[in-house]
# Entry
Amino acid sequence: MDIKALLAQVKSGELDMDTAEQQLKNLPYEDLGYAKIDHHRKLRSGFPEVIFCSGKSMEHLVGIYKSFYDRDDDVLGTRASQAQYEAVAQVVPCVEYDPLSKVLKIHRHPLEQVGLISVCTGGTSDIAVAEEVAQVAEYFGSKVNRVYDVGVAGIHRLFAKLDAIEAANCIVAIAGMEGALAGVLAGLVSKPVIAVPTSIGYGASFGGLSALLTMLNSCAEGVSVVNIDNGFGAGYIATQINKLASK
Amino acid sequence: MDIKALLAQVKSGELDMDTAEQQLKNLPYEDLGYAKIDHHRKLRSGFPEVIFCSGKSMEHLVGIYKSFYDRDDDVLGTRASQAQYEAVAQVVPCVEYDPLSKVLKIHRHPLEQVGLISVCTGGTSDIAVAEEVAQVAEYFGSKVNRVYDVGVAGIHRLFAKLDAIEAANCIVAIAGMEGALAGVLAGLVSKPVIAVPTSIGYGASFGGLSALLTMLNSCAEGVSVVNIDNGFGAGYIATQINKLASK
Amino acid sequence: MDIKALLAQVKSGELDMDTAEQQLKNLPYEDLGYAKIDHHRKLRSGFPEVIFCSGKSMEHLVGIYKSFYDRDDDVLGTRASQAQYEAVAQVVPCVEYDPLSKVLKIHRHPLEQVGLISVCTGGTSDIAVAEEVAQVAEYFGSKVNRVYDVGVAGIHRLFAKLDAIEAANCIVAIAGMEGALAGVLAGLVSKPVIAVPTSIGYGASFGGLSALLTMLNSCAEGVSVVNIDNGFGAGYIATQINKLASK
Amino acid sequence: MDIKALLAQVKSGELDMDTAEQQLKNLPYEDLGYAKIDHHRKLRSGFPEVIFCSGKSMEHLVGIYKSFYDRDDDVLGTRASQAQYEAVAQVVPCVEYDPLSKVLKIHRHPLEQVGLISVCTGGTSDIAVAEEVAQVAEYFGSKVNRVYDVGVAGIHRLFAKLDAIEAANCIVAIAGMEGALAGVLAGLVSKPVIAVPTSIGYGASFGGLSALLTMLNSCAEGVSVVNIDNGFGAGYIATQINKLASK
Amino acid sequence: MDIKALLAQVKSGELDMDTAEQQLKNLPYEDLGYAKIDHHRKLRSGFPEVIFCSGKSMEHLVGIYKSFYDRDDDVLGTRASQAQYEAVAQVVPCVEYDPLSKVLKIHRHPLEQVGLISVCTGGTSDIAVAEEVAQVAEYFGSKVNRVYDVGVAGIHRLFAKLDAIEAANCIVAIAGMEGALAGVLAGLVSKPVIAVPTSIGYGASFGGLSALLTMLNSCAEGVSVVNIDNGFGAGYIATQINKLASK
Amino acid sequence: MDIKALLAQVKSGELDMDTAEQQLKNLPYEDLGYAKIDHHRKLRSGFPEVIFCSGKSMEHLVGIYKSFYDRDDDVLGTRASQAQYEAVAQVVPCVEYDPLSKVLKIHRHPLEQVGLISVCTGGTSDIAVAEEVAQVAEYFGSKVNRVYDVGVAGIHRLFAKLDAIEAANCIVAIAGMEGALAGVLAGLVSKPVIAVPTSIGYGASFGGLSALLTMLNSCAEGVSVVNIDNGFGAGYIATQINKLASK
Amino acid sequence: MDIKALLAQVKSGELDMDTAEQQLKNLPYEDLGYAKIDHHRKLRSGFPEVIFCSGKSMEHLVGIYKSFYDRDDDVLGTRASQAQYEAVAQVVPCVEYDPLSKVLKIHRHPLEQVGLISVCTGGTSDIAVAEEVAQVAEYFGSKVNRVYDVGVAGIHRLFAKLDAIEAANCIVAIAGMEGALAGVLAGLVSKPVIAVPTSIGYGASFGGLSALLTMLNSCAEGVSVVNIDNGFGAGYIATQINKLASK
Amino acid sequence: MDIKALLAQVKSGELDMDTAEQQLKNLPYEDLGYAKIDHHRKLRSGFPEVIFCSGKSMEHLVGIYKSFYDRDDDVLGTRASQAQYEAVAQVVPCVEYDPLSKVLKIHRHPLEQVGLISVCTGGTSDIAVAEEVAQVAEYFGSKVNRVYDVGVAGIHRLFAKLDAIEAANCIVAIAGMEGALAGVLAGLVSKPVIAVPTSIGYGASFGGLSALLTMLNSCAEGVSVVNIDNGFGAGYIATQINKLASK
# Structure
């Protein structure tokens, strides 16, 4: 909203004061009662809206997707279940679902993909999170290089892929258990590393706490960390960085 | 119990000493063996009795509701399951159940609703807890203003509702994940804010611990906190405050 | 700031558009560079500004107090050290310091004290926190009833004071170690109880964590909790409640 | 085993040296391979053997019960499931099961019950643990006084039962959530209090951690604590104390 | 206080009603303002009053000791510093201090010592806590058998002392680091074991948490646990048990 | 890979530079895309490849086993479910599965078993983890002595087996709850003890944390610890030690 | 190191095989025995070497700075004490020290400063960490915009600075206590936000844990997090991003 | 003690029964009252006695060292302070102290050093712990190869030393902060790796917890872990392994 333009309208009488006051108070979003959908977010941040599906009721979720669909807007949902997909698909036929990454999206206006992000995992069990990273990054307009199962327990696998990894503008390092991949990668490359701890593991991994602490305590420079299993968050900030670098 | 009146009766001989001693020891409640129901609590605190349903056996729970029903007393139960509702409904036909808030109540003598409490959530996933707050507050005699999905990630949604929120005597701020809503609200309004952390989230939210710590460490003045997901507790103390302000 | 009045001024030409835009963006505070002092806070919240002294450099702290002093405003600082007091006193001669509560204040315009708050402690070691509660509440305009050393280990001491405690509009319960005072009090009175866990204790009290968890899990209704040792926060919200009840 | 008697037999030639060495090494127990059953434990400790059923395979559990049954020994198992009961009952027809306390026992030689133990709970949800306490204590030869639902949130219920509680040699205080019952009781009576935190609660009760810490930090003298939900342990040590007092 | 006798006095007119009401409300203690000293506690519990010295101000502590001294009552303080001793000694010349156990006491009327308590430590570093146990037990009238440095790392040292240990009515097992002593002892003896975890250790002992958890999870029957380093609590409950057994 | 030999080939012209560069970068493994199988690991470490089955998709897991099967290589998988076994068995008919230890293996080229490892458990509930230890050790070429249910609560059972335990080159001590077995064993034997905490227990065992801390804080020398329930890790390092001792 | 060039030299005979093997193994660093200084790091990562001063002995630290000084290389040390500065200054006269940020540097070859990073703090107590961020970023070649004391408790202060904050390529948000600044900022701007939790706070802030969890659980997109008080790490990755955006 | 020989003596009359019983009960150690010194430990375990000096009183510590000195036995103490060294040196002139490792020893009968242990650190700040490892290993008869400052942040430093590291029978990996060194090393070598987390770090390293969890969750096979900063424990078990391999 352009405050100055609005004030000009008030001065000129184009806009009455009550309406202006209202507009100053109510920035534009659609109020569904149970949810307030931010259709102008795309203008503000340059990215389409995103929905955290987990825990939302069927009625609420379907209503939200329908609102986007009706305006011909795209939307990407994370942590969607198969059942949620099926419910949404009944009213939004074009919705797409990937059961591995649990991404549920309306994607009729794909963005051009630019730059490059390397998405690396320590093991094969981390691939579900990695696919959330990769698909979010692709949705928001990044090219992605997937490099899976290159954990530090067999470090020669990592070295074999190092040139390809470093070719990106930003690297996402995804690992559970000990979570050492992020720090080792950051010591080998000169690009920012976004670290994603995963909840893969057992016992003293404490649901991903071990990998989280490892990544936060990385001795190598150039690492910052998102929440455990937060593939979406990593894909988003990696795209922000990739786009800054691709201007 | 009025100790002085009792002593007067002893002195006058109206009351024999053994009975007096007994009454001094046994304040009035109904002993079901497995439970001690406090029918005089309403006199003492001004609020009807409340039941924490979760974990109680069917037999015990039905017995407790029947005891209130038989005396034509109202009672509100929290965290009741659908199965508990169905069992109670067989012997107490007038019992009401809301599956979202999990409130199970006998409500034949509604209190007049006074004052105003604003019940705000950060997201749509927090609504189940918020409804427990709102329905408890309404049951105990407060008017309630529901303001849902106004979390700090899109802070213009909050500003648009600020005047309506602050019109209340007490504000309940309900949020999971980072839990920043309570502190931001308290910085914007001049009314006491009761903060309810929720267990919505994943990974390093640690079942609501993250939101709990955020709220306890709020830099803004005028915040105090109840247990994670404790909608009942927030609705109760908010009503105490609202009634003090509405006298 | 009254948005409507401002818009009226714009319309009438009293205010040019650039100035109006500026005012809409910059709410009034004084920018010292290292700190942004909110002299209008009093208008907004009804309470004077408060300073968290711990960890601030001498230069910054003295500068802040001087700013208030120069405008003849009152200010209350918490967690101030003896050394901080002495440094401030050199440029602000009227500053007052209490070494027990660590309150450091300029207090030339005392508010009228209304209503009543009961400030209760479990033991004598909790008195330092209790005095922070009491002095903050008095500074902001509450009458205070101090009831110290009435912990549940010798519960007859608590019963002897119960009538005096309940005479208040709001009760602050301060306890370390097991922290049971808040829950027991809330079961006995009908006023809201603000619970303050303290770090008094050793071993499995884990710096106040034990008392904090006890208070958050209180079975009695009408308890909400502030941070460990946060006497200021309790005194503030108790005063908000007390003033609502004293209107 | 009487070492001196054994040595005398060696000296006299009654016992050959190899056998003696074997006996010195192998104190008497029955080795089932997967389990080593201690049939002489009763002699050593004065109490029959006890089995922790949870997590044991059907084959192992049935084998263990059969071993006791075949020797006409009694045995008490804790945390047994309905399925485990049914499997054991097929080969040990006289086995008895209580689904509330989850106690599974062969009880053909009941001990005489002496003295008195008071078993108190804060709420009705704590009764499952309380019954484990009570039935273990009775099995090992204690009289038991059950006093349920006397938590501190309605402290007059506790006072009404105080004389009956204190008549025992040892008091077991069982509570979840805030867990304040143990400390309040210990402040009111002069008998040792064994505190049992329960996992009843939610949110910041952290599976019983809150009640555990409360009880460990009790300000009142005369409290010691067993593991969360450990009704067996409390029933056992309470009986040890009760028997010492009943000599 | 004998309620029945009081009621009889009211009936007969010996006692006026206002006085009776007052007595029913105010059980006898001395109110120093900052502390409420319980001079009748000895009658109620059979044990003299105890003071937790740590964290009390000099003025308060000296006042409390003087109050006992003036009434010719004994008192035992725990966790007293050398400085506190010196301050108290100036006004209470007969006060005694042991710098190892940090016990500070007025002890002019020693109780007769009965029965026996065994006080065992895992290592020599646990002796400070053990002496608090032993001296508290002796002060309250128990005979004590000290058995130090018999930890499980060299288990033959423990076996050599086993007969002497088991001769007691109650055993106190004190250990830091892994804290296994309590469980091993309980498996070898048939008397109740009060376990005291100590903060001796480093790294993953986390200030005694490791030993605390070990003791709470003891597989052997007959163990209950007090707070980390809580020698006083262990000495107190061990004496309660010892006296019950010595009747 | 022999770098010097490769360089010699480059110099002599046997190997062209591009190929050499490639080989220096790509150490030999098979890239399945989702997994990078290290068929040369056996040469490097002397042990065949191992697969962590838990959390892998059926498609990935079957593909990995098929890859080994097709090359006639052995492979051992841990934490495999019954369903995973059935899926793999459809394409790899010779695969073997043990539902107790959850080991899933192709084992056509058994290694000769040398030396001796003692695998000891505190209780019968720890046997599942113990069997993972034992079967991994046997698979990698160690003889194994199983000694189950010798926990410290009945320490005479342990002493009866001590000579047999100490006959090994390395001892694995497996225990849940208090976890004291490792420390007690290390105090009695002179061989290295690998400690495995298990998640057996409840309440304050916190999923094995209690046993883990106990073992890390062991006062006896010669203990080191692996992750909670990590039978594989213990079997592996015990075999490394056993083989060093058996050379 | 260019592997292909090296191989060419081997082939041509310019380089003998032993030397080549050595170079492949020993990448260039200077071995001081106690430390291995990486003088070629600048080539590899584009950034000069950095030293973590805290905990290093005087002798080691002085030796390391002298090594850089002697080669006329720049170096930046973090968390240096005043005493360390004085010791280094005796042999490296040109070393510069800032006692607020604790940065100790040799800075004879300043890099050109490009782009822009906004460094924001919640309070004035966070300025020490913020200065580490800012000075590290400036040292590595970024322009910096300092925006201090704009925490969410008085959110109008933040809005007044929003345009200036968003003008940067990357934003660093530094806050203790509740730590909500990062999430609120990320909801308002479209640039990546690097969040730095600080240890400012008390009680349930648990040394910065509260702020750390808040930031990890941020609901707004575009936040990633470094270790508590890790100003250096934030300054480094922010500069990586800023330089990518400034190309 | 040879039980069979003892029994033979009893049978033959060489040994009377009382003495035999005594010997069976009292394995040989010297009882100083406050400590029980195990002079025969060397026979049992093959290693001399070790003393944990931290927390012992001067009087006790000096007495213990004197006891060894008087018998001409060697002894090694860990975590000794400078003051403890000076006190012991006054009565035991030959005692040796290293202020870096804090080892205090009587070392008149050095053992022959055999085999090889590699002691590796991630950084220079870990050297104090590493020296405790190395000096303990040397004292007990191992050759040691020190490889310091080879952390994974600059992994080429590690590769340059890999051949030398792997030449040992056992590798000790010492690291703080993220603690990734142990897992990376174990992936590269085929020898058992004993991991020592250190308390070096700040913030979310939580006193070494981060490194501890990383090491426990190592994905590479062949890692086991000792307590945080427990250089002694690592040196001891590494020597046990080294000696088994050197037979």
Observations:
- The radius of gyration of chain C is 21 Å.
